[in-house]
Every structure is written in structure tokens, then in C-alpha cells.
Design brief:
- The structure is a homodimer.
- The first copy, chain A, is an alpha/beta fold and about 270 residues long.
- Chain A has one domain (about 5-270): Alpha-Beta Barrel (TIM Barrel), CATH 3.20.20.
- Helix content of chain A is about 45%, strand content about 15%.
- Chain A is built from 12 helices and 10 strands.
- Chain A has helices at about 5-15, 40-50, 60-65, 70-80, 100-110, 130-135, 150-155, 165-175, 190-200, 215-220, 235, 245-270; strands at about 20, 55-60, 90-95, 115-120, 140-145, 160, 160-165, 180-185, 205, 230.
- Chain A has an 8-stranded parallel β-barrel with strand order 1-2-3-4-5-8-9-10, surrounded by 4 helices.
- In chain A, strand 4, helix 6 and strand 5 form a beta-alpha-beta unit.
- In chain A, helix 2 (about 40-50) packs across helix 12 and helix 9 packs parallel to helix 10.
- The longest helix of chain A has 27 residues, at about 245-270.
- In chain A, about 55% of the residues are buried.
- The interface between A and B is large, with 51 and 51 residues.
């Protein structure tokens, strides 16, 4: 199924704009899981069980899995296997290289692991996206305006009258307007307002809420369309550091996800009034 | 040892500006190696044995190793173990993320695997470099002007009077002028001339010769300093596709590396006259 179709269906069926970020740091996994053969895989399995009722999908930041070497590889595979088929999966790999090399990243993340979509660095241009776009039912989230302070180094530089991030968006849309969405930090409300107005059919992946301290209300209020997902990681997955067992862990983490999902929906509903 | 010192020493001691790119695709490994437990590791081991006399160092494009999953991880480790201690190693990972996440990449590539240096995407700004820079003897190669056709998408965009790639270079140098060098494609001779004139002490990693068809003579003639390495991969490592055994393989591949090293040195010497 074409990703855009899957995405819209997921938003509808799950009634959720929440994507849980499985940025699983083995040093932050609760004590009771530390003796597992693969603590990261176990942790993720419990988080997915606890939260899948409340999510539209999951985003795995690949850095955390690379850090765990073989067990990280294994955890990616086992985690993807337990995520419900109708939810979206995002490889937050922020990859980008020349075409032949990017083709290998596409083989690894999209073909081998089976992620629906992947985040991509725009700097090297079209070659960094094309191999991913060649896959029929896959999707690319290009970094446009990121949530970190380093966004100020280059992303606001003016090309004529337009900031670089906007030029990136326009250029990327010209490559493929059905299979490319953008990563836009939650804190950039003015720009979110602009991009959702200019591109009412273009999905957005929005990180930067939760531990990164974006304001959810301001963010939701800035959006002019509803084809977006809000990523939250630490505030959900690490909400039960002292849990003594799986039951306790899932209760707390599930509640955190439910709360996050409901908060987003409530703010969306208030807008409509 | 501070990387800059190691780099200058390596250039001197090896009398080579050649870096061999170990972009090892398992489907291109000769028949006689296909039955090895880890063909990529074996192939690399033979390439290093055959070429180390002629190289300043080695660059591993991480995409090839990720594609090989567990065996790729293992091959990175075994390959680094056989590279001579005085030569430089480059993780061509083109990584970049928010600070906390980039820290994990630094732990993986610089601490765990022990690469001397890593290639980095500039788009997300300083956060994508800082964790790598925190490691005392490590080094960052920031993508400035890349060799692929997609470089034309954004890297030449004008910020006022300056192209983006130049703004990236100036900004990065302001973060740290001792631990940051740049990736500049061999085909961009006019820009190579400019950057080596403006920054006579700043190392460059130059890909795009060989299979990517840059002209070595034009490239060498454009350089105003000698703190550079030229990366060549496919023209060396895949020069012996029909080799029947290790001895034959190493003879051919070694000769290809020697030829490449000598060609570069000859062109440098001709300049001096």
C-alpha cells in the first residue's frame, strides 16, 4: 500500500497523532530488564505492548541501536516484528550519501528491516533521496527545520528572500510530491504555520515536544492541516524508571502514552471550536 | 596523539596522499573468497595487506557494513585491527543529529570501533559535530562541496555573495579550527583552488577520482597546500575480480594502489617545477 494511504488510514484507525520514539538507551532500561538476553529488545517489546493502543506508529533513532552493536541490530528486527501492521514505522537514520551508496541504505532499512519510511539529510541533494523513493510503498522524511539549537547555524540563512529550510522544502517537493514529507521541529511554530498553509497535503514529522521542551499547545495551534505526527520519546518510554516488573512498567508507560495521545487530540478539538 | 599531528606524520612516513576506500560490497568479492565465514572481513584483510605499503590510510563507508548486518559489524572491527597504527582511519558515516544522539554516534565510531575520524553532515549545525570534537585525538570531516550531481541542488546556493558550501566551511572553522577538515569533491577544481588558498592549514578529504571520473591532474593542480588525501575505492579494491587466490589478488590490487600513489606523487612533483 502506498505510504500516504497507509498514513492517512493509520491516523484514522488509531485516532492518534502520536508517534512513540523508541530511542532506547540500554543504560536507562529499568533494573528488572537488565538481566534479559537483550534488554533493549525486551524493553521495546514491553513499550510497544503498553502503548500500541494509543499510537499512530513508532520511530526508532538508529544511533541507539548502532551503539548496541549486534544486540542493537537484533532489537531493530524484533521490535519491528511486534509493531501492529497498520501503524507507521520510521527509521530515524538521517542518512544521505551519493546514489550508489544511498541505495545500500535503502536496502538495509527499507528492504531488509522493512521500515515504512526513513529520515534523510538534504545537504547532498537528490541522490540522498532517490534510492529510497524508488521503493514503491516507502516514504522519505527530509530534514527541513530541526528542533535543535544548531538549526540556527544554516537553516535560516537567506537565499534571496527565502530561508534555506524553505528552499530545501520547495526543491524536495519538486523531486516527488507524493513520497516526501518533512521533519519540522515543534518549537518552530511560525514556520509550521507557513508550511502547513502552503503545502496542505504534505505530511510532517514533528519532534521536539516532551524532554526537548516544545509547547504542545502552541505547536498544535500553528498547524493548518492534520497530516502530522508528533514524536515523543523520553517522556513516555522512560516514565517508569523504578518499575519492578513488566506489569507495573506497562501500566505506567501505557498511561503516559494515553495521556500524550489524548492531550494532542484535545488541543486539536479545541482548535475546531 | 592529536589527529593533525598523526595526519602530518602519516603523510610524511608513508609518502602517500592515497586513502583506499574500503567500500566492500559482498556481491563484488571474488569467487575464491565467497566461502569464507566473513567474506567482507577476509577481502578487507587481503586488500589492507596488499596496499598498506602505498597508503596514508583507509576510509570505510559505513553503508556497506550496515548492509552486511552482523558480519558487517564484525568486519569493521577486524579491518581496523589490521590497519597499521600510524595510518589514518576514516568512518565515512556522514552522520549528524541532535547533540545527545550524536554523542552515541561518537561512542560507537570513535570510542568503540576506534576510528580516528568521521565524516559529518552539516545541515543540523554545531550539534552534529560537537560530541565528536569532545574526543581529544579525534577529527571531523564536514561535508562541504560533494562530488555527486546532487551537490548542485543546495551547495551552490548564494547566501549574499557566498555559496552555501563556503558559508558552511567558514562556520565550521569557527567551531574548531584544529579538529575540523572538509570533504571536497575532486571535480570541483575551482573551489579546491579557493579553499586551499584561504585555509592553507586545513586538511581536505577528496573523493570523486577513479570510478567517479574526476581528473586527477586537474585536481592536484588546483591544490595550494599539501594537507590532503585523495580517496580511491573501486578502481583499486575491485581491480582483481577474476583473481583465483589470495596471492594473485594481492599482487593485482597492490599494483593498483602503488600506481595510484605514484600517479598522485608524480603530479605533485610536476607542479613544483
Amino acid at each position: 500500500m502506498h505510504f500516504l494511504k497507509k498514513f492517512k488510514q493509520a491516523l484514522r484507525e488509531t485516532n492518534s497523532h502520536l508517534v512513540v520514539g523508541l530511542d532506547t538507551d540500554i543504560t536507562k532500561v529499568p533494573q528488572f530488564l537488565q538481566t534479559a538476553v537483550n534488554p533493549i529488545a525486551e524493553f521495546n517489546s514491553l513499550v510497544v505492548e503498553a502503548t500500541k493502543e494509543f499510537t499512530c506508529g513508532y520511530k526508532l533513532n538508529v544511533a541507539f541501536y548502532e551503539r548496541a552493536l549486534e544486540r542493537g541490530l537484533s532489537a531493530i528486527q524484533s521490535t519491528l516484528a511486534v509493531i501492529p501492521q497498520n501503524q507507521i514505522t520510521i527509521a530515524d537514520a538521517k542518512r544521505g550519501d551519493i546514489e550508489n551508496t544511498t541505495e545500500l541504505y535503502a536496502q538495509t532499512f527499507l528492504d531488509e528491516f522493512g521500515f515504512d519510511s526513513i529520515t534523510v539529510q538534504p545537504y547532498m541533494g537528490q541522490d540522498s533521496a532517490r534510492p529510497f523513493l524508488r521503493r514503491k510503498n516507502k516514504y522519505v522524511w527530509i530534514l527541513a527545520l530541526t528542533s535543535n539549537y544548531g538549526a540556527n547555524d544554516f537553516q535560516f540563512l537567506k537565499i534571496g528572500k527565502q530561508p534555506l529550510w524553505e528552499v530545501v522544502v520547495e526543491k524536495a517537493v519538486s523531486w516527488n510530491d507524493q513520497k516526501i514529507g518533512f521533519v519540522m521541529g515543534a518549537n518552530h511554530t511560525r514556520e509550521l504555520e507557513k508550511i502547513t498553509k502552503n503545502l496542505p497535503e504534505t505530511p510532517l514529522l514533528i519532534p521536539g515536544i516532551g524532554a526537548q521542551k516544545g509547547s504542545l499547545e502552541k505547536t498544535i495551534n500553528s498547524l493548518n492541516h492534520s497530516l502530522f505526527v508528533i514524536n515523543q520519546s523520553r517522556s513516555i518510554i522512560y516514565s517508569a524508571p523504578k518499575a519492578q516488573n513488566a506489569v507495573e512498567f506497562k501500566a505506567i508507560v501505557g498511561e503516559a502514552a494515553q495521556k500524550a495521545r489524548d492531550e494532542i487530540n484535545k488541543l486539536i478539538d479545541s482548535k475546531k471550536k
